[in-house]
Every structure is written in C-alpha cells, then in structure tokens.
C-alpha cells in the first residue's frame, strides 16, 4: 500500500511529456581528483551527479529561507521515501500538522548524512531542440539544505549533490514536472572534456545513431530508488565466465556514478578474475604484447605495466568484456572501460571485489557498474517506459559531440 501511495505522489510531481515542453541540457564535467561528475546548477554552484541518489541537496548560507512544507505533506513523504543506511528514521511526532519537513541529505562517497530543511531553488540551464540551445530556463527545484561538513570527499567547488534516481524529488522528475517533459534523461559521461546530461529525453543530434540504441529493462529493487538492470551472463573474449544466471539475478546489477570501477560480489568476482587472467595470458598468441604484472594498487588486484600492454582503438590491448543484458544485447567493454590508470606507468583492471559481503548474499547487488564503465556511452534512462538504452559512441567521437550547451 505504501509503495502504491509513493507512486501516486511521484506521478503528481512528474508530468507526462507535452508537445510544448523542451528538454533541458547541461554540460557534465569529470573531476580528475575524485573521478566524480558535476553539472553547473546556478550562480556558479556545481552539483555532483549521483545516478542512485533520490534527492537534490546543497549547502545553505543562511540567506535561503526554508520552504513552508509541513512534515505531513506529500512532498515531505517523497523527501523521506528512501532513507539512507545509518540515517535517522524520519518522524513527524505528535505535532505533525505544524512541524516543518526535515529531510536527510546523504553523501554518496562518505556515507554521511545530516538533517536539513527543504527549500526552493532553481536549476539554470538551456532548453534544446536537438540541434542548438533555444533559451535559458530557470527550473524550480525543491532541494534539501545540508551543512558544509557533508561536502567531505566531493570535488572542490561543488556545493551538493543532484540525485538522478527514480524518485519523486530526484532532478529528472522535478524537471519533468516543471518543463512538462518526459521523466527521462540522457547521459554521456566523458573520459575527458565535456559530457552532457539532457533531461526530458530527446531530440538529439544524429538520430540515425541514437534511434538504434539497444534497450534493457530497468528493474525495481524494493527499498531502493537506484537504477538496476538484469544480466544473463558475463563474457571475457566471447567466452562465458562460469557464473550462473541465478547468481547474477540474486541482488541484481546496480548502476553507480560514485565509483570509477566495477564492484563484484565474491561469487562473481573470483570466476571473473580467473577468466580475465587466462584470456590475457592467451593474447600474445594473437599478436598482442606480453602483459607484465606489477604490484597491485589498492583496491585493485590485477595491475600491469602500461608499456607492456600496448594500445589499440579501444584503449589498452586487453581482453574485451561483454555483459549480456536482459533483452539480448551485450554491453561491450574494451580496455577504455575495463582499465583505469592509477599512477604513471601502472593501469589496473577496473573490477574490484565487494568487501563485507558474503557470496550469494542477495541483500547486496551481484554487480555494481561504476562511472568508467558508462563513459563514452550515450545512456537513456527512461523511467516512464522502465528501460535503459545504451550505445557506445563511434571511434574518435566524444561526449562533447552531443554538448551544445556552451552558447545561448
């Protein structure tokens, strides 16, 4: 019953697409120090993108009055629909009809949370017709106020977090409500330079490219607003890793921008490491250089001398990794997505074992895909049709090809 109520409340804040509404576009920047992604929000403020976050929050300087939102209101219920682990349980108490709403913004990197009031702010960006910016727009947004200590471990200069999850007060739902566009966003995370986020769907340039996207269902996981998909199998160089579909289904596959690498539950990680190591050792027979292992750099287990890896159009010359998703398509990763540079001369396989999680524990995802695995893809998070579209950018094409937010 509570789930139904939340869906009804979310629907009231996220209007269906209108022919008069235009999508809203913002540039995305990758912070080299933290590997997190930010968008400009307003007046020089930058917010960190959290694809699993249910709220928009930022620090308040005291000059921003709290919104007059009662604790018992539907908006307050949405603000507290997905409490973060370790945060206080929201409660209105006996004076619920008079008490103002308190939310609990959450730092996705440190796991810290803090109590804060809700306030009205604005998201300043450009509308787009798919070819060029049309006009600047101020999108009204309800956000949570947070103390400055909650910014720990976030990029320098950022003032908060923009949640992109499937929740009523995440940024996509609020833009959909204000602009009368679809509750949908497209994301292209850059390896360097500028990326782009487009709220409200298309149109996009290059329709022949974006219309040929592969799609897989978005899967709801009880108690979480994060975006999940289902995997049928994992392949290394077209050879299936010996992990059952049932094991992958237990806990599901979560998408995250707070990590620059993949986390695998132990029952998935060990078979993957064995398969990757075997495939890498077999590559010299096909003309690849002999990869020289070096001392691991935490949290990674498999690290190599970059001079011994060689390069091709897909990045480092390492075995390709394919994720066979529900729907029949493969999320294909070359060395550009499966390796991370950790220091000069050393690159590591960007797959890490989850800590503190038992093999087969369905309370944790089987796989968490990180930012590096989403970079240089165009991703279509369609919450209305409950599906995720994905398509790799062509060679020599970056996310900036979709970013026309620089001029108004």
TrEMBL record:
<dbReference type="InterPro" id="IPR032799">
    <property type="entry name" value="TAXi_C"/>
</dbReference>
<keyword id="KW-0378">Hydrolase</keyword>
<dbReference type="GO" id="GO:0004190">
    <property type="term" value="F:aspartic-type endopeptidase activity"/>
</dbReference>
<dbReference type="InterPro" id="IPR032861">
    <property type="entry name" value="TAXi_N"/>
</dbReference>
<protein>
    <submittedName>
        <fullName>Xylanase inhibitor TAXI-IV</fullName>
    </submittedName>
</protein>
<keyword id="KW-0119">Carbohydrate metabolism</keyword>
<keyword id="KW-0858">Xylan degradation</keyword>
<dbReference type="GO" id="GO:0006508">
    <property type="term" value="P:proteolysis"/>
</dbReference>
<dbReference type="InterPro" id="IPR021109">
    <property type="entry name" value="Peptidase_aspartic_dom_sf"/>
</dbReference>
<dbReference type="Pfam" id="PF14541">
    <property type="entry name" value="TAXi_C"/>
</dbReference>
<dbReference type="GO" id="GO:0045493">
    <property type="term" value="P:xylan catabolic process"/>
</dbReference>
<keyword id="KW-0732">Signal</keyword>
<dbReference type="Pfam" id="PF14543">
    <property type="entry name" value="TAXi_N"/>
</dbReference>
<dbReference type="InterPro" id="IPR033121">
    <property type="entry name" value="PEPTIDASE_A1"/>
</dbReference>
<keyword id="KW-0326">Glycosidase</keyword>
<comment type="similarity">
    <text>Belongs to the peptidase A1 family.</text>
</comment>
<dbReference type="GO" id="GO:0016798">
    <property type="term" value="F:hydrolase activity, acting on glycosyl bonds"/>
</dbReference>
<feature type="signal peptide">
    <location>
        <begin position="1"/>
        <end position="21"/>
    </location>
</feature>
<feature type="domain" description="Peptidase A1">
    <location>
        <begin position="32"/>
        <end position="391"/>
    </location>
</feature>
<dbReference type="InterPro" id="IPR033868">
    <property type="entry name" value="Xylanase_inhibitor_I-like"/>
</dbReference>
<keyword id="KW-0624">Polysaccharide degradation</keyword>
<dbReference type="InterPro" id="IPR001461">
    <property type="entry name" value="Aspartic_peptidase_A1"/>
</dbReference>
């Amino acid at each position: 019953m509570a789930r139904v109520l939340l869906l009804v409340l979310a629907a009231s804040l996220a209007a269906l697409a209108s022919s008069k509404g235009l999508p809203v576009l913002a540039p995305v920047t990758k912070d080299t120090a933290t590997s997190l992604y930010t968008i400009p929000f307003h007046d020089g403020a930058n917010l960190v993108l959290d694809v699993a976050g249910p709220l928009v929050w930022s620090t308040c300087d005291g000059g921003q009055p709290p919104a007059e939102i009662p604790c018992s209101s539907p908006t307050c219920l949405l603000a507290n629909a997905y409490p973060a682990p370790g945060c206080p349980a929201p409660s209105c108490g006996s004076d619920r009809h008079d008490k103002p709403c308190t939310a609990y913004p959450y730092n996705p990197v440190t796991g810290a949370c803090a109590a804060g009031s809700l306030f009205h702010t604005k998201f300043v960006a450009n509308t787009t017709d798919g070819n060029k910016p049309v006009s600047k727009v101020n999108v009204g947004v309800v956000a949570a106020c947070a103390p400055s200590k909650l910014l720990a471990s976030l990029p320098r200069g950022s003032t908060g977090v923009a949640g992109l999850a499937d929740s009523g007060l995440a940024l996509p739902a609020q833009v959909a409500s204000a602009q009368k566009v679809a509750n949908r966003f497209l994301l292209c995370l850059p390896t360097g330079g500028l990326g782009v986020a487009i709220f409200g769907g298309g149109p996009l340039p290059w329709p022949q490219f974006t219309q040929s996207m592969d799609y897989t269902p978005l899967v709801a996981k009880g108690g979480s607003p994060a975006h999940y998909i289902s995997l049928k199998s994992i392949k290394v160089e077209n050879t299936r890793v010996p992990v059952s579909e049932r094991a992958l289904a237990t806990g599901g596959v979560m998408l995250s921008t707070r990590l620059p690498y993949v986390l695998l539950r132990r029952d998935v990680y060990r078979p993957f490491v064995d398969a990757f190591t075997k495939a890498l050792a077999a590559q010299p027979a096909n003309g690849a250089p002999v990869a020289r292992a070096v001392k691991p750099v935490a949290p990674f287990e498999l690290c190599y001398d970059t001079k011994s890896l060689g390069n091709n159009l897909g990045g480092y010359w390492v075995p390709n990794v394919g994720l066979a998703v529900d729907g029949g398509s493969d999320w294909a990763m070359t060395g550009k997505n499966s390796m991370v540079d950790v220091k000069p001369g050393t690159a590591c396989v960007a797959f890490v074992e989850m800590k503190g999680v038992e093999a087969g524990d369905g309370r944790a995802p089987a796989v968490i895909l990180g930012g590096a695995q989403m970079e240089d893809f165009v991703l279509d998070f369609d919450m209305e049709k409950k599906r995720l579209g994905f398509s790799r950018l062509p060679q020599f094409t970056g996310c900036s090809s979709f970013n026309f937010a620089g001029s108004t």
